[in-house]
Structure formats: structure tokens, C-alpha cells
Amino acid sequence: MAIQFPNNPGIGSVFTDTDAGFSYEWTGVVWKSFTPAAANNVKELDDISSGFDNSTTTFNLTILSEAYQPVNAAMLQISLGGVIQEPSTDYTVSFIDATITFTTAPSAGLDFFGVVRGTAVAIDYATDGNVQTKQEFTATEGQTSFTVSGGYSTGYVDVFRNGVRLGSDDFTDTSGTAVVLTVPAQADDLIETVKYNVASLVTTEGQFARLNITGVTTVGVVTGATSIQSGVFYGDGSNLTGISVDSTALKDSGGNVKTQANPGGIVITGVATATTFVGDLTGDVTGDVTGNTSGTAGGLTGTPNITVGSVTAASGSFSGNVTIGGTLTYQDVTNIDSVGIITAQQGIQVLANGVDVTGIGTFEDRITYDGSLGQAGGGTVTYTVTVATKDSTHRYNGSGSSNGYVIDNLQAPVLTFTPGRTYRFTNDNTGSHPLKFYLEADKTTLYSTGVTFDNAYTEITVSDTTPAVLHYQCTNHSLMGNSVITQSNIAAGFNVVDESSDTSCNVLFTTDATGTGLEAKTGTNLTFNSSSGQLTATSFSGDGSSLTGVDAGISAGKAVALSSFLN
DSSP readout, 396-427? Predict the structure, then answer.
């Protein structure tokens, strides 16, 4: 039951609660604890002297082998070797750890004696800082109702009229918000209300109304009609019930739920659900991780092992080697380094370094390559040709037409043909971009031998007499395609340009007058001045009978001199 303090106490008045055995003194503002606590609060600490070893400073505190958590050092009286120790100077305590720490390590063999002093429970102040609150009103003529600021507890309000305390018959206080005079006030009457904030203190299960506790208190069961407020809560919270998932009681002003972990960390034995997790995750994670993860995962160091059933990603980057024990299935692999069997669904493009197959290679489609690779002759190879805007992989990107041929999903690749095979190019846009073959990239000379042109396709049959290099280009637009290497027996040609100013041109020649695959050669003994037309050689051979443009004045008698000149 609530403590019933007397009305209108004088300063220094003492009131004793006979039920609890506590006395209180009126300070003019609040009731203060007057007597020490009951004797049953004074207890003896267990002896810890067996642990004194000249080095250890921190010891566990227990009473009858049960951990004891002191609120502060001053509530303990500690004796070492018969000498009383000064709190906070000679020793400190930890409520959380239930320990005492000495400033100087006790010597081995010292006697220990410690007691817990009883403390009084002070009814210090209510939530608003006062046990009582006064309020004054200047009445108007006939006024009967006066509203008390903040409300009041029924039965705990006094009313004064012009300094005279009214009795219970002179007013009513049942609403909790206003007091009502039985006799209406006259104009300018001074009405004063004094409300009292009530607290209940019991030693067994009961209720607290508007109780402020400074420090730490340990209770059995607390039943709160509305709420319990504290700056710090201690304990495992195992007996807390009825906490709503939307409750703000465990949140800070920003709506964040915060906990204070013990030294071993927070242990969750059930399911932890959160909308977000912010901060670093340090340490090992044991068990399964399921669900979806979004955002960026970084900071994995060391050699972690990740085992999953399947991985789906937009992209990936590996600085080291990737080992795949099963089958790698992917449509857009650009580089393969394999020591086993490769099965290609859409063909393989081989760059200038070529391909080196030491085992068995199985290809469902052709191999397109820039290097050297032998193919068996015979049969027909079909290419699918489309048109798209050039990208950086196109050989002529930035020159000629902005569009380019795309052959089997590759931007205008260099193609290699094999004599004896037929190659068909199916074109879905033949009307606008008909594909034909030329001896030059700029389409100077059309090549039509063995070539069939149809509205739906262009087809070429390669032989040993097909030029070594051809160019597939659009007849209507420039530089849409690329070159073709035929691997025929015809030597590759070269570009010839007009030169009329170089004074020291080298003359090219071959070792045979006719044949295929002949090499072009030159030498320093035969030069040509393209500016003057002069041919210079170290020697001439022959009788000169076929020479023209020679000065007619040269006679037969001068033949010896001319012969000497020529030789």
C-alpha cells in the first residue's frame, strides 16, 4: 500500500512508516530518508584472502558463494590485515562483473574482512522533480472550477482559499484534472492548489507509481501500470514479457535498437531478423547462410572457401586461376586456356597466336582464326551475316561506313578458307548491303571466279588458284567487311603506288619468268631514278641490237667504244 504522508508538514517534521520500518524528514520540499535500512540488508562477504599472491588485484565478490554486484565502493566496508580500506582510493568495484579491484595487490597471508552496508531507500523526488506542486489562481466572480496543470491523483490535492485550507466538504477532486468549489469564489479570491506525487514502496510484489531511482537497484518483480524509465538496465532480461515488436522502449531517440554485449559477445540461439546489417562482420560464421544478399560484398581476405550450389552473376573478375571440376557452359567465352577437352557449340575464334591442340578437340561448328590452322578440305561452310553499327573490335572502325558486317556474332572477323571447300554467306539484308569479294579492301577489282551471288546469299568455292588474299565488302558502302585468307598456292599480292620523284628506287624481280608462289627480290646493283628516268647498273650484257633511242651518230666504228662503255 502507498505511504500516507501527513498534510501540511513543517520543516523538520518526521514521519515513520511502521509497516516498512523507515522514517522520513520533511525538508520543506521533499521527504528524505531519515533512518538506516533494516539490518537484514547488512551482509558479510565471502573470504577472498586465499587468492592473495602479491600480484593479483581483481577478485570476484560473493555472498554465500553467490555473485554479489555492488552498486558503488562506498556501500562496502573492506578490511585488509585489520586496516580499513578507503573506498574509491584503495579499491573500486564493478557492478557488471561483480568484482573488487585493489589499487595495490594484497600480500599473501593478509586477513580479509568485508561487509555490505545497508542503505536506505530515499523518496527523493518524483518524475517532475518534486513530491508536491503548487499552483495559484485569481478567481473571477462566481468561478467554481479550477484546472490543475498536469492533472493530479485523486485524494492527493489540497485546496486553499485566501490562505485558508479547505476541507473535503468544501471542494471535490474526483476528475483528476480540475477541482470544483462547493461555494463559488468571489472576484479576486486567491485559490491555491497543492498536488502530491505518490510513490509506493513495498518489500514484496506490488506497484510503484512515479518512482525515480538514481543508481542501480535490484528487485524481484516490478509491475508497471504504464512504463518504467531508466538510463541503464542490468540483468539478462529473461523475465521480461509483453514487449511489442513495435515497442520504442528498447530504442534510442533515433529509433535504433541497442544492446550492451557481455565480454563474450551477443549469443543468439534462435533466429535473428533484421532489415539491414550495418558495420563490419568480424570472425567466423558457422552454419548455413540462406536468403538473398544485395549490395557489395568486399573485404574478404585470407583464403576463404565458398561452397554454393550455383552462382548467377552479371560479371566477375579473377586475378588468379579458376579451376572448374565439371563442365563450363557459357556462350560468350572470349579466352580459353584448357588442358582437357573443349566442346564448342558456336565455333571458336583463334587469334594470331593460333591454337595448339595436344589432345582431342571436338567442335560442333567451324573455327574462325587469325593465325595458322589447318582444315580438311571438302564440304560447305555456312556463315550467318547481319549488319550492325561498328564497335571498337571492327578492323575499320572510324573509317568508311558506320555500319559493319557481323559474321556469326563477330564484328567483321578475318576469315581463313581451305581450298576445296565452299563457303556460303547468308545475308539478311542483301538488298541494302550485298556482299561480294574483291582483290582490294577499297573494292578496286571485283573477284568473281568460283563466286555465286544470289539475293539470299553469296557463295565462293576456293581452289589452289584462288588469290591468297581476298576482301569481302559491301558493294554499296565502304569498309564494312574484312580480309579472307584462302591458303591457296597463289602468292599474296602487294600494293603498287605511283612514284615519280624518288631518285633511288630499287627494282624488284623474280628468279623465274613464270610460276606461282614466286618471291619478289631486289638488289643494290640495279637502281632506278624515277625523277630523271635514269637506270643504273654495274654492268650490261648483250650486243645492244635491240636498244632504241640511242644517238644515231654512233657508227660501227665506234662499236668498240660503246661496247667498252657498256662493259
Answer: TTTSS-SEEEEETTEESPPEE--TT-EEEEEE
100 within 8 A of 58, measured Cβ to Cβ = yes
Report phi then psi at 495, rounded to 5.
-80, 140
Q: Which segments within 150-222 are labelled E, that is strand?
A: 157-161, 164-165, 171-172, 178-181, 190-196
- Rounded distance between C-alpha atoms, residue 459 and residue 445, angstroms: 18
- C-alpha cell read off for 147: 484546472
The total number of residues shown for the chain amounts to 567
The C-alpha cell that represents 330 in the structure block: 557459357
**What's the rounded Cα separation, in Å, for the pair 132 and 123?**
12
Closest CA to 436 of 493, 371, 488, 385: 385
**Which tens digits make up the pLDDT trace of 332-378?**
566 666 666 666 655 566 554 455 555 556 655 555 544 334 444 56
How many CB atoms neighbour CB 66 within 10 A? 9
Strands (E) located in 428-481: 435-438, 446-447, 451-453, 457-461, 469-474
Q: Is the pTM of this model over 0.70?
A: no
User: Which residue type sits at 212?
Assistant: N
Contacts of 134 (CB under 8 A, 6+ apart): 192, 193, 194
User: What topology is assigned to 380-485 in CATH?
Assistant: Immunoglobulin-like (2.60.40)
Q: At CA 378, angle to CA 462 and CA 331, rounded to 5?
A: 95
- What's the whole-number average pLDDT of the chain? 75
Contact 355, 369 (CB under 8 A): yes
CA 110 to CA 99: how far, in whole Å? 19
* 37 φ/ψ sector (left φ>0, alpha ψ -120 to 50, else beta): beta
Q: Which residues is 505 bridged to in the sheet?
A: 528
Q: What is each CA distance from 339 to 324, 330, 349, 561, in whole angstroms?
A: 12, 18, 18, 76
Intra-chain end-to-end CA distance of the chain, in Å: 145
93: cell is: 568495484
